[in-house]
Specification:
It contains three helices and seven strands; from the N terminus they run E-H-H-E-E-E-E-E-E-H. It is an alpha+beta fold and about 150 residues long. A seven-stranded antiparallel β-sheet has the order 1-7-6-5-4-3-2. It is globular and about 40 Å long. It starts with 8 loop residues before the first strand and ends in a 20-residue tail after the last helix.
Length: about 150
Protein backbone atom coordinates (compact mmCIF):
# COMPACT_ATOMS: atom_id res chain seq x y z
CA UNK A 1 0.00 0.00 0.00
CA UNK A 2 1.41 3.41 -0.99
CA UNK A 3 1.89 5.97 1.78
CA UNK A 4 -0.53 8.89 1.74
CA UNK A 5 0.21 12.61 1.91
CA UNK A 6 -0.23 12.60 5.69
CA UNK A 7 2.86 10.45 6.16
CA UNK A 8 5.97 12.65 6.17
CA UNK A 9 9.07 12.02 4.12
CA UNK A 10 12.00 11.66 6.52
CA UNK A 11 15.71 11.30 5.88
CA UNK A 12 18.66 11.37 8.28
CA UNK A 13 22.20 12.33 7.37
CA UNK A 14 25.39 12.38 9.40
CA UNK A 15 27.78 15.25 8.73
CA UNK A 16 31.33 15.65 10.03
CA UNK A 17 30.80 19.42 10.29
CA UNK A 18 29.43 21.08 13.46
CA UNK A 19 25.78 22.22 13.62
CA UNK A 20 26.69 25.92 13.33
CA UNK A 21 28.44 25.35 9.98
CA UNK A 22 25.54 23.25 8.64
CA UNK A 23 23.05 25.86 9.87
CA UNK A 24 24.89 28.56 7.89
CA UNK A 25 24.40 26.62 4.64
CA UNK A 26 20.72 26.10 5.37
CA UNK A 27 19.89 29.60 6.61
CA UNK A 28 21.91 32.18 4.67
CA UNK A 29 21.38 33.56 1.16
CA UNK A 30 24.61 32.08 -0.16
CA UNK A 31 24.17 28.70 1.53
CA UNK A 32 21.39 27.08 -0.54
CA UNK A 33 23.16 28.21 -3.73
CA UNK A 34 26.07 25.96 -2.72
CA UNK A 35 24.01 22.75 -2.66
CA UNK A 36 20.28 23.20 -3.42
CA UNK A 37 19.62 25.83 -6.08
CA UNK A 38 21.60 27.74 -8.69
CA UNK A 39 20.81 30.94 -6.86
CA UNK A 40 19.13 31.77 -3.57
CA UNK A 41 18.08 35.10 -2.12
CA UNK A 42 16.30 35.92 1.07
CA UNK A 43 14.52 39.03 2.22
CA UNK A 44 11.63 39.95 4.46
CA UNK A 45 11.07 36.43 5.78
CA UNK A 46 11.09 34.83 2.31
CA UNK A 47 13.62 32.80 0.34
CA UNK A 48 13.69 32.66 -3.43
CA UNK A 49 15.38 29.69 -5.10
CA UNK A 50 16.26 29.47 -8.80
CA UNK A 51 16.94 25.98 -10.19
CA UNK A 52 19.02 24.87 -13.23
CA UNK A 53 15.91 24.16 -15.32
CA UNK A 54 14.79 27.80 -14.90
CA UNK A 55 12.12 27.03 -12.33
CA UNK A 56 11.92 29.42 -9.39
CA UNK A 57 10.29 29.16 -6.00
CA UNK A 58 9.56 31.85 -3.44
CA UNK A 59 8.55 30.54 -0.03
CA UNK A 60 8.20 31.84 3.48
CA UNK A 61 10.87 31.04 6.02
CA UNK A 62 8.74 29.50 8.76
CA UNK A 63 11.38 29.01 11.41
CA UNK A 64 15.08 29.61 12.01
CA UNK A 65 16.51 28.59 15.38
CA UNK A 66 20.29 28.95 15.42
CA UNK A 67 21.94 26.41 15.09
CA UNK A 68 19.23 23.78 15.42
CA UNK A 69 16.37 24.22 12.98
CA UNK A 70 15.31 25.69 9.63
CA UNK A 71 11.82 25.25 8.18
CA UNK A 72 10.50 26.72 4.93
CA UNK A 73 7.42 26.73 2.76
CA UNK A 74 8.23 24.79 -0.41
CA UNK A 75 6.11 24.59 -3.55
CA UNK A 76 2.66 24.97 -2.07
CA UNK A 77 1.73 23.08 1.07
CA UNK A 78 4.97 21.09 1.25
CA UNK A 79 6.89 21.94 4.41
CA UNK A 80 10.49 20.73 4.71
CA UNK A 81 12.14 21.11 8.11
CA UNK A 82 15.84 20.58 8.79
CA UNK A 83 16.65 19.71 12.41
CA UNK A 84 20.30 19.65 13.46
CA UNK A 85 21.66 17.78 16.48
CA UNK A 86 25.19 17.74 17.80
CA UNK A 87 26.52 14.20 17.43
CA UNK A 88 28.74 14.51 20.53
CA UNK A 89 31.94 14.25 18.43
CA UNK A 90 31.95 17.63 16.69
CA UNK A 91 29.62 16.62 13.87
CA UNK A 92 25.92 16.91 13.13
CA UNK A 93 23.04 14.50 12.79
CA UNK A 94 20.58 16.16 10.41
CA UNK A 95 16.97 15.05 10.13
CA UNK A 96 14.94 16.30 7.19
CA UNK A 97 11.18 15.93 7.50
CA UNK A 98 8.87 17.05 4.72
CA UNK A 99 5.12 17.14 5.25
CA UNK A 100 2.25 17.93 2.91
CA UNK A 101 3.55 15.96 -0.07
CA UNK A 102 0.75 14.70 -2.36
CA UNK A 103 0.88 10.93 -2.90
CA UNK A 104 1.59 11.34 -6.64
CA UNK A 105 4.81 13.28 -5.87
CA UNK A 106 6.13 11.21 -2.97
CA UNK A 107 8.49 8.94 -4.92
CA UNK A 108 10.10 11.85 -6.79
CA UNK A 109 10.37 13.94 -3.63
CA UNK A 110 12.02 11.14 -1.67
CA UNK A 111 14.63 10.71 -4.40
CA UNK A 112 15.05 14.46 -4.84
CA UNK A 113 15.87 14.98 -1.17
CA UNK A 114 18.61 12.33 -1.37
CA UNK A 115 20.17 14.34 -4.20
CA UNK A 116 19.92 17.60 -2.19
CA UNK A 117 21.22 16.05 1.03
CA UNK A 118 24.23 14.40 -0.61
CA UNK A 119 25.08 17.72 -2.31
CA UNK A 120 24.78 19.37 1.13
CA UNK A 121 27.19 16.81 2.60
CA UNK A 122 29.72 17.39 -0.19
CA UNK A 123 29.48 21.17 0.25
CA UNK A 124 29.66 21.38 4.04
CA UNK A 125 32.06 18.52 4.80
CA UNK A 126 34.36 18.69 1.76
CA UNK A 127 33.79 22.18 0.25
CA UNK A 128 32.96 20.50 -3.07
CA UNK A 129 30.07 21.21 -5.43
CA UNK A 130 29.02 17.93 -7.06
CA UNK A 131 26.26 19.46 -9.19
CA UNK A 132 26.63 19.87 -12.97
CA UNK A 133 25.03 23.36 -13.22
CA UNK A 134 24.01 22.42 -16.75
CA UNK A 135 20.51 23.59 -17.76
CA UNK A 136 20.45 20.81 -20.38
CA UNK A 137 21.02 18.14 -17.71
CA UNK A 138 18.43 18.68 -15.00
CA UNK A 139 16.15 16.63 -12.81
CA UNK A 140 13.54 16.93 -15.60
CA UNK A 141 15.85 14.90 -17.88
CA UNK A 142 16.63 12.35 -15.18
CA UNK A 143 19.95 13.82 -14.00
CA UNK A 144 20.47 13.73 -10.24
CA UNK A 145 23.53 15.98 -10.29
CA UNK A 146 21.71 19.14 -11.28
Amino acid sequence: MAPDADEPIRWRLHLASPPEKVYELLSTDAGPARFWAEDARGEGGFVELRFPNGMTHRGRVLSKVRPRRVAVEYFGARLPEFVLADDGRGGTDLTLTETGVPAKWREGNRAGWVSVLMALKAAVDFDVDVRSHDPQRTWDQGFVDN
